[in-house]
Amino acid sequence: MKQGDVYAADLSSMRDEQVFEQVFKTNFKNLHAYACTILKNEAAAEEMVQQVFYKIWEKKDELTIHVSVKAYLYRSVHNLCLNQLTHQQVKASHQSYTMQQAKHYEEDSASARVRQAELESNIRKALNELPEQCRTIFQMSRFEDLKYHEIAKALGISIKTVENQMGKALKLMRLKLVEFLPLLIILFRL
């Protein structure tokens, strides 16, 4: 029997630190090279081989190996490397998805900013086209949050005049801003 080719019958000797260390030293270089062929990354390959040995040492009292230790080591490294590759693929997919979502959000955000700027420009234009008293009453109501009776008092007119002018302003604003109506309903409670 070669050194490092310990069989199940000799598993009890793997619990001995010196035997374990010898198996580690004998197999590490070849296991590392094998892991490198799978992962294409020396540092990751080294970590996988070390994890395999760590797990074996950690579970040495309950571990039963039914093949040669060498075969067990290669199979363990192989499985751990495949798990690592799967993890990397999942991570890459998640990063790609996150980047796509961020790009989509930025596009939506840019589109929303353009739409908002267009809306603001059209609101200013529509407001400027309102008769002066109508515009003043509308601005006091919608931009200053004043009640009709407060507007009437401030302008020295009747509440009925305020109501009529607001009705006229809202009708004209709806006509001028018809394409933005859904958004305006939310913003101005038209």
Task: Name the descriptors.
190 residues, mainly alpha, Arc Repressor Mutant, subunit A, 2 domains, 8 helices, 0% strand, rod-shaped, disordered N terminus
Specify the structural class: mainly alpha
CATH classification, class level of the largest domain: Mainly Alpha
| CATH fold annotation of the largest domain | Rna Polymerase Sigma Factor, Chain: A
User: Which percent bin holds the helix content?
Assistant: over 70%
Proper CATH architecture of the largest domain: Orthogonal Bundle
Quaternary organization:
single chain
Task: Count every beta strand, where a strand is a DSSP E run of 2 or more residues.
Answer: 0
Per CATH, the superfamily of the largest domain is: RNA polymerase sigma factor, region 2, helix turn helix motif
Distance between the termini: 91 Å
Low-confidence stretches: 1-11
Overall spatial form: rod-shaped
Query: Total number of helical segments?
Result: 8
Output the helix-strand order.
HHHHHHHH
Strand content: under 5%
Largest sheet: none
Radius of gyration: 38 Å
Question: What topology emerges from the helices and strands here?
Answer:
Blueprint: H1 11-14, H2 17-39, H3 42-58, H4 69-129, H5 132-142, H6 148-155, H7 159-176, H8 181-188
Give an overview of the whole structure.
The protein is mainly alpha-helical and 190 residues long. The protein folds into 2 domains: 8-94, Rna Polymerase Sigma Factor, Chain: A (Orthogonal Bundle); 130-188, Winged helix-like DNA-binding domain superfamily/Winged helix DNA-binding domain (Arc Repressor Mutant, subunit A, Orthogonal Bundle). Helix content is 79%, strand content 0%. The chain contains 8 helices and no strands. The protein is rod-shaped and about 100 Å long. The chain starts with 10 loop residues before the first helix and ends with a helix. 12% of the residues are buried. Residues 1-11 have low confidence and may be disordered.
